[in-house]
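Section 5: illustrative case.
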C-alpha cells in the first residue's frame, strides 16, 4: 500500500496529508494565515547539556557513595551503583532488575564470570560515556561489555581495534575480534594482516603472531586477493608451519591449504614439499598439487589454463610501457610499469631479452607477448650506427615468476604490423619485412593449443603502419600505407573472426593516417594521431551505423606514443614525439582523454622522455613500498 503524500508544517513537526487528499473546507482552514501562524509559534528544542548533566550527577553520587541501591562484586571487589542507571544502560541489568526477579531486591550481586578490571571499565563507561582502552585492558573490557550487553561499549572496542592496528598488535587484535564476534573489526584486521604480510614475515615477532592466529582469520588471510611483495611459496611454508603449531581436523586442514595458489609455486619446490609434508598428501590437496604440476608442464597452453590457483595476489592492473626510448631508433630493453592510482612509474626487475621497436604487444591470460619488430643493435664504439633487423621471434613474459620464454616464431618476419587478440587467439596482420622490402598482405594466427602459427585470411592488399582494434569477435584495421604507395590511406577493413574468412571494407576515415593508433571504448572505436599529420583531429567510429564522427582535436601534434584504455574508460597517452622549432623532440608527459566530455588533460610526467613505447595492461607482483 502506497502512503499518501504529506506536508510538513512548523518547527513542531506537524504532518498533514497533501492537498490532493483533503476536502475543500479542511484545506481552506489549514491555509488560513491564523492557522499557519499558530503552528509556527511552537518549537521542538533539544538540550545536550541536560543529558550530560544527568550522567555527571550520577557519577558524583557514585563517587560519594550516595543513593546507591546495589553493589556489584567481581574478584572480591565491590562497586556501588544505581539500579535505575544500570537498567537503562544494559540489557542484562534491565532483565535482572524486573519486579519478579530475586535480584531486584537483594543488596549485592556477584558477577563471578567477570574480572574486576572489566567490570570497572564498563561501569565507568555507563556513568561517563568514556572508556579507556589499551591492549592490556581490551579483553577484560570486551568480556564485561558483552556479558552485560552494553552494546555501545562493545562498539567502541571494535572501533579501537580497527583504528589502532599496527604490526605489533594486528594478530592479537584479530584473535580478540574473532573471540567476541566483532565481524567488521575482524574484516578490517584480516585485510591489514594480508596487506602487511611481507613485513610480518620479515620479523620473528610477526611470524610468531601469525602462527598464533585463529583459524578463521588465517583462512581468510590465506585466501586474500591482496598480499603484495610475498611469493606464494612463502605462503605455503607459513601454512605448513601454522598446521604444525595448531591441531585441527583433516577437513579444516584441506580447507585451509586449498587457498594456497599452487600454480604460483615453482614445480621443483612443489614436488619436494608434496613428498615431505603429510598435509599435502591428503587426496584432495594431492589432486590440487598434481593439477598445478600439470599446469607447469603445459608451456604453450598456460595462458588458456588460468584459474584462481595461477592468479597473482593483486587486484589492480598496471600499464606496461614496452620498448621505446628517449630518442628515435634507440629503444631500450627496460620495461616501465605505471600505477594509475598513485601515478608512479617503476621499472620491472627483468628487462626484455632484446632491444626492439615497431613490435607487436598483447596480453593473453596475464602473459605478455612481444612479437616480431625490429631488433636494434647500436655500435658501442661510435654510439651512432644502429643495425636494425626485422625479427620473427616471439617472446612471452610470465609475471608470476618474472621470466621470459621464447615461443614458436612467426611464419614471416614482421615490423610495423597490427597485433590483436580475439578469444585467446593472437593475430599478426600485414606489416613489412626488412627495410626496403615490400609490405605484407599475409595474416597469421597463433593457436596456443597447437603451439604454432598458422596462416589466416590474407588482406586485399599489402599494408604496413596501420592501426588495429577489436569489437567482440570483429577485427578492424585502418589507414597505413598500401603496397608500394607513398601516401597514407583512409581505408578501413573488417574481419569477422567467427564468420566467413574474408576482409570487408567499411566506411573510410575522413583523414588519411599512418603510424596512428586505435582504441575501443564502449563498443565505439576511437582513432588517434599518426605520423606527420597536418591536423590533430580525433575520430570516433560507430560499428552499428558504419559511420565516423570528428571529435575535438588534440592541441599539439603527437606521434610514436604509447596508448591504452584505463579500466574507467579513459585513454592514456604516454610520451611520443612532436615538432618543435623545426625538429622532432621526445616528450615526457602523460595525457588522459575523457571520451564522455571529449576533453584532454595532463595527469603526470614520465621519468624520462619516451618515444615508441607499446602499452599493455596486466597484473604484476610489484615489490612493497619501503
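Designed sequence:
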Amino acid at each position: 500500500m502506497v502512503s499518501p503524500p504529506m506536508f510538513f508544517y512548523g518547527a513542531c513537526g506537524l504532518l498533514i496529508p497533501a492537498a490532493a487528499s483533503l476536502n475543500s473546507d479542511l484545506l481552506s482552514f489549514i491555509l488560513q494565515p491564523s492557522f499557519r501562524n499558530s503552528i509556527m509559534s511552537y518549537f521542538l528544542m533539544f538540550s545536550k547539556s541536560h543529558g550530560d548533566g544527568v550522567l555527571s550527577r550520577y557519577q558524583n553520587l557514585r563517587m560519594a557513595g550516595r543513593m546507591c541501591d546495589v553493589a556489584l562484586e567481581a574478584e572480591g571487589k565491590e562497586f556501588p551503583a544505581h539500579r535505575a542507571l544500570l537498567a537503562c544502560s544494559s540489557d542484562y541489568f534491565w532483565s535482572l532488575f524486573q519486579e519478579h526477579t530475586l535480584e531486584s531486591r537483594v543488596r549485592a550481586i556477584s558477577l563471578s564470570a567477570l574480572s574486576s578490571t572489566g567490570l570497572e571499565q564498563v561501569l565507568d563507561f555507563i556513568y561517563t560515556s568514556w572508556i579507556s582502552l589499551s591492549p592490556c585492558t581490551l579483553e577484560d573490557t570486551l568480556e564485561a561489555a558483552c556479558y552485560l550487553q552494553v552494546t555501545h561499549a562493545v562498539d567502541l572496542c571494535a572501533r579501537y581495534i580497527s583504528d589502532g592496528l599496527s604490526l605489533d598488535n594486528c594478530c592479537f587484535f584479530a584473535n580478540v575480534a574473532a573471540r567476541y564476534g566483532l565481524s567488521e573489526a575482524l574484516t578490517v584486521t584480516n585485510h591489514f594482516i594480508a596487506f602487511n604480510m611481507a613485513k610480518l614475515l620479515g620479523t620473528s615477532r610477526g611470524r610468531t603472531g601469525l602462527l598464533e592466529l585463529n583459524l578463521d582469520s588465517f583462512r581468510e588471510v590465506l585466501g586474500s586477493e591482496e598480499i603484495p611483495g610475498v611469493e606464494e611459496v612463502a605462503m605455503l611454508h607459513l601454512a605448513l608451519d601454522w598446521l604444525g603449531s595448531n591441531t585441527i581436523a583433516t577437513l579444516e586442514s584441506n580447507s585451509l591449504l586449498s587457498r594456497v595458489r599452487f600454480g604460483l609455486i615453482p614445480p621443483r619446490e612443489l614436488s619436494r614439499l608434496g613428498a615431505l609434508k603429510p598435509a599435502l598428501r591428503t587426496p584432495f590437496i594431492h589432486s590440487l598439487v598434481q593439477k598445478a604440476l600439470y599446469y607447469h608442464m603445459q608451456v604453450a597452453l598456460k595462458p588458456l589454463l588460468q584459474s584462481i590457483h595461477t592468479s597473482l595476489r593483486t587486484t589492480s592492473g598496471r600499464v606496461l610501457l614496452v620498448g621505446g626510448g628517449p630518442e628515435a631508433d634507440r629503444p631500450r630493453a627496460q620495461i616501465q610499469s605505471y600505477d594509475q592510482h598513485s601515478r608512479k612509474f617503476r621499472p620491472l626487475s627483468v628487462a626484455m631479452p632484446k632491444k626492439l621497436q615497431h613490435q607487436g604487444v598483447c596480453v593473453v591470460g596475464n602473459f605478455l607477448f612481444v612479437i616480431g619488430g625490429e631488433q636494434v643493435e647500436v655500435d658501442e664504439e661510435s654510439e651512432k650506427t644502429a643495425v636494425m633487423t626485422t625479427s620473427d621471434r616471439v617472446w612471452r613474459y610470465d609475471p608470476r615468476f618474472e621470466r621470459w620464454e621464447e615461443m614458436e616464431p612467426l611464419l614471416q618476419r614482421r615490423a610495423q604490423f597490427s597485433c590483436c587478440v580475439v578469444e585467446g587467439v593472437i593475430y599478426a596482420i600485414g606489416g613489412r619485412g626488412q627495410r626496403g622490402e615490400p609490405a605484407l598482405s599475409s595474416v597469421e594466427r597463433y593457436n596456443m593449443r597447437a603451439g604454432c602459427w598458422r596462416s589466416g585470411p590474407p588482406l586485399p592488399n599489402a599494408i604496413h603502419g596501420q592501426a588495429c582494434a577489436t569489437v567482440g569477435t570483429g577485427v578492424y584495421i585502418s589507414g597505413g600505407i598500401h603496397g608500394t604507395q607513398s601516401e597514407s590511406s583512409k581505408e578501413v577493413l573488417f574481419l569477422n573472426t567467427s564468420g566467413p574468412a574474408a576482409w570487408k571494407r567499411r566506411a573510410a576515415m575522413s583523414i588519411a593516417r599512418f603510424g596512428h593508433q586505435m582504441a575501443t571504448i564502449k563498443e565505439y572505436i576511437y582513432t588517434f594521431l599518426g605520423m606527420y599529420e597536418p591536423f590533430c583531429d580525433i575520430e570516433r567510429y560507430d560499428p552499428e551505423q558504419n559511420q565516423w564522427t570528428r571529435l575535438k582535436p588534440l592541441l599539439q601534434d603527437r606521434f610514436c606514443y604509447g596508448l591504452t584504455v584505463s579500466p574507467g574508460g579513459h585513454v592514456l597517452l604516454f610520451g611520443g614525439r612532436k615538432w618543435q622549432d623545426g625538429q622532432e623532440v621526445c616528450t615526457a608527459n602523460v595525457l588522459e582523454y575523457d571520451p564522455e566530455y571529449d576533453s584532454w588533460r595532463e595527469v603526470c610526467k614520465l621519468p624520462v622522455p619516451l618515444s615508441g613505447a607499446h602499452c599493455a595492461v596486466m597484473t604484476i607482483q610489484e615489490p612493497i613500498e619501503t
